[in-house]
Automatic annotation (TrEMBL):
It comes from Adlercreutzia faecimuris. This is 4Fe-4S dicluster domain-containing protein. Transmembrane segments: none annotated. Coiled coil: none annotated. Pfam families: Fer4_11 (PF13247), Fer4_2 (PF12797).
Length: 201
């Protein structure tokens, strides 16, 4: 069992539904996005086009973030998902410096309420109070909590209106077939063996 994702760039329309779904599901602090979509202009007139590329933690098999963490706060589960134990994280940010995908964020502990005009806690933020600790690192967890409860899916893949994100066991025949269609990984020069693949347009 090795969980990962194949993202079909030919289907991605850059709508950011994945970004919103991830943020809503994980209630990340204001300014913290585990899932992002970068958009660039490619080609030349009259064949110019807009290219959207969703990005997230690559949950690498050879994860350098795990290797550099001095407290073992960053670790890899048996199913390949890379996690961060915020109770062990000391905020040294070695993992942020080591990650070639810029997939990690640091919580500076600033006031990041979404509703500063309201007095007291609002129900949404209260429901997730204590989930994040100031002075620690956080990142995409591939919705491991849903997987552990039996729902083998991610919020971002479920929200995608064009089904550009395909999540599952990379060892399965279905995922292997997708990868054989010409899927590639970001920054292969880093030899991190990412678990996130991209199908070209």
């Amino acid at each position: 069992m090795h969980y990962g994702m194949v993202i079909d760039l030919g289907r991605c329309i850059g709508c950011n539904a994945c970004t919103v779904a991830c943020k809503q599901k994980n209630a990340t602090p204001r300014g913290t996005f585990w899932c992002k979509v970068t958009t660039t202009e490619e080609g030349e007139y009259p064949k110019a086009y807009r290219k959207s590329v969703p990005t997230l933690c690559n949950h690498c098999q050879n994860a350098v973030c795990v290797a550099v963490c001095p407290t073992h706060a960053t670790y890899k589960r048996e199913d390949g998902i890379v996690m961060v134990d915020q109770d062990k994280c000391i905020g040294c940010r070695y993992c942020i410096a080591a990650c070639p995908y810029e997939a990690r964020t640091f919580d500076f502990g600033e006031d990041k309420t979404y509703f500063p005009e309201l007095e007291g806690d609002n129900p949404y933020e209260s429901a997730h109070e204590g989930a994040f600790h100031a002075g620690t690192v956080s990142k995409c967890i591939l919705c491991s909590d849903r997987i552990d409860s039996g729902d083998v899916s991610t919020a971002c893949s479920q929200a995608c209106p064009t089904h550009a994100r395909i999540f599952g066991d990379l060892d399965s025949p279905e995922m292997q077939e997708l990868i054989r269609r010409g899927a590639y990984v970001m920054r292969p020069d880093q030899r991190t063996q990412p678990a996130v693949y991209y199908l070209p347009r």
